[in-house]
Write a structure and sequence with these properties.
Elements lengths: L1 E3 L7 E3 L4 H8 L4 E2 L1 E7 L2 E7 L3 E4 L4 E4 L8 H7 L1 E6 L5 H6 L13 E3 L5 E3 L4 E13 L2 E13 L6 E4 L2 E4 L7
Antiparallel strand pairs: 1-2, 3-13, 4-5, 4-8, 6-7, 7-12, 8-11, 9-10, 11-12, 13-14
This protein binds flavin mononucleotide.
Length: 176
């Protein structure tokens, strides 16, 4: 139990939540899986990211959270333009590939450049072409807000899901 100092000066106990408990409980929140990509002078780069969400319609903003340990995010930040690729149900391999730090993640991966030059992976459910808007302190992650430059979707494709540490499929009539 640690303490916080309110104005009254009286120490207020702050419960300590174990990272394992956070991961286990928050893993019950099912999400999609994205790969955030960008084009550098040395070729395309990217990383797998589950902490993605829409933020604002006007202005059009989205958010995602790279870990402070990510070696890809600092390079994406420097470029300032990137594409969020929403993976489809048959793209678990892409998710795993782009989660491997240091690997040549684009080896054998098919993609096309967006209007703003960022890699759009083939056969994704949706893609959101972005420009960096702002970064906020997020503890052991950074909260990134990005403005949407262009986007598109393929309604005929079903999304890949992630739930309690495992990949899952959408079993919903609309997804058929
Ligand atoms: C399903 C899945 C979801 C992930 N979500 C995130 C995330 O939201 N933020 C993050 O920083 N890393 C996330 N990762 C881990 C990164 O993909 C991985 O640490 C990163 O690719 C490491 O490579 P880098 O050093 O090139 O950044 C996720 C991995 C998987 C498999």
């Amino acid at each position: 139990m640690s303490e916080a100092q309110p104005e009254s000066g009286e120490p207020v106990p702050v419960p300590v939540v174990e990272p394992r408990t956070m991961r286990d409980v928050l893993g019950h929140f099912a999400s999609g899986v994205t790969v955030v990509t960008a084009m550098t002078d040395d070729g395309p780069i990217g990383f797998t990211c589950q902490s993605f969400s829409s933020l604002s319609l006007d202005p059009p903003l989205v958010v995602f959270a790279p870990a402070r340990t990510s070696s890809t995010w600092p390079r994406l930040r420097d470029i300032g333009r990137f594409c969020v690729n929403v993976l489809a149900e048959d793209q678990t391999d892409l998710s795993t590939t782009f989660a491997r730090s240091g690997a040549d993640k684009f080896a054998g991966v098919h993609w096309r450049p967006s209007r703003h030059g960022s890699p759009v992976l083939d056969d994704v459910v949706a893609w959101i072409d972005c420009r960096l808007w702002a970064e906020y302190d997020g503890g052991d992650h950074t909260l990134v807000a990005a403005s949407v430059l262009d986007l598109g979707a393929d309604p005929g494709r079903r999304p890949l899901l992630f739930h309690r540490g495992a990949y899952g499929l959408l079993d919903h009539p609309r997804g058929r």
